[in-house]
Amino acid sequence: MGKVVMYGSVSVDGFIADEDDEPGPLFDWLTSGDVALDESGVLAVSQASYDYIRPYWNEIGATIVGRHVFDLTDGWGGVPPSGVDHVVVVTHRPEPDGWGAEAPFHFVDSVEAAVARAQELVGDRTVEVAAGDVGGQVLAAGLIDEVRMDVVPVVFGSGKRYFGAVEAQHLLEDPDVVIHGDRVLHVRYRVRR
């Protein structure tokens, strides 16, 4: 099986959105460079960010999100973000009425089921878990192999936490990657087992 990676952009004080679910400047680094990150023409980053992010994005076969993120994005219109093949949604509610069965979205009722389904779908490719409550639950369940953070130089003071409501201590290894991009610091930690 491929590795399971918790990922997201985060403020220096540990938030992925403010109290109103707004990311503020957390994604500004994705449009502040001169190297196209994808074919959209919208995302352009520094060369250092591109060299780190593009190979990682190419590894991802499935992304796991919670129902809250799915609803906030309106399910990305049925098209997984960033070229990902599948999205697995953790929810206790049924999929939305009229949701297309042909869309590569899979609805499950636990984080354990989400990781198992994602790994079944993508085999040796990477399973990405969105930071926040679901990511924190997957970490607490001992199913995260690696934590990747795009640390943005902003302080929110309060909001939605990167690790959600994790209450127990979890040790990470020393960072094995630290890359300085424009308006972002990319950091990667392996989870200590």
TrEMBL record:
GO terms for biological process: riboflavin biosynthetic process. It comes from the Bacteria. GO terms for molecular function: 5-amino-6-(5-phosphoribosylamino)uracil reductase activity. SUPFAM superfamilies: Dihydrofolate reductase-like (SSF53597). This is Dihydrofolate reductase. Pfam families: RibD_C. Residues 5-170 form the Bacterial bifunctional deaminase-reductase C-terminal domain. Transmembrane segments: none annotated.
